[in-house]
Amino acid sequence: MNIELGEKAPQFTLFNTDKKEVSLEDYKGRNVILLFFPQAFTSVCTKELCSMRDDISRYDKTDAQVLGISVDSVFTLARFRVEQALNFPLLSDFNKETSRAYGALYDNWILNMQGVSKRSAFVIDRQGILRYAEVLENAGELPDFGKINAILESLT
Predict the structure, then answer these.
(1) Residue 33 in 3-state DSSP?
(2) What is the pLDDT of residues 89-147, one digit of tens each?
(3) CB-CB contact of 70 with 92 (8 Å)
(4) What percentage of residues in the chain have a pLDDT greater than 90?
(5) Residues with Cβ within 8 Å of residue 42, at least 6 apart in sequence
(6) What is the SS3 assignment for 100?
């Protein structure tokens, strides 16, 4: 599915690391940064999410909730979150529906793994409108945090 900037962001409900359901709708009235990442405990994913952790005050100032999403299980994500002291929710898209809805799913990734989230970043404004989308084909690359920050600044 292709989604366009300026459209309503696809809704979702996923489980967090506390095994509680979390919906995009829960954050209505706040900006949201969705970060899809391929797999917990890999070097680039760790670097990306720890970068967000270390810069969380910037996102707090723009009233932006960071949400990390991968197809890993809630159990794997819970351990990853604790080990990396991540200060934002991680959500399990184990059934791959949300990654697919956002156009952020590899059909075939490394080692013939199928159905893994592509590294992607989306900014959704307070009204649920998609304001930024970056889907990376190369999982070794990081999202453009400068562009994400500029979009968030423009929404304040």
Answers:
(1) strand
(2) 999 999 999 999 999 998 765 556 568 899 999 999 999 999 999 999 888 899 999 99
(3) yes
(4) 87
(5) none
(6) helix
| Concatenated DSSP letters of 91-111 | EE-TT-HHHHHTT-EESS-GG
Q: Are 128 and 9 in contact (CB under 8 A)?
A: yes
> Which residues are the active-site residues?
45
Q: 128: Cβ–Cβ under 8 A, 6 or more apart, which residues?
A: 8, 9, 24, 25, 28
3 contacts: CB under 8 Å, gap ≥ 6: 9, 10, 101, 102, 103, 130, 133
What residue has token string 């900037």? 5
How many Cβ atoms are within 10 Å of 59's Cβ, its own excluded?
19
For the record, the structure tokens of 126 come out as 């307070």
Domains of the chain with CATH codes = 27-154 (3.40.30.10)
Element containing residue 149 per DSSP (H, E): helix 145-154
Residue 66 CA to residue 82 CA, distance in Å, equals 16
Longest dimension (CA), the chain: 43
User: Which amino acid does the sequence have at 48?
Assistant: E
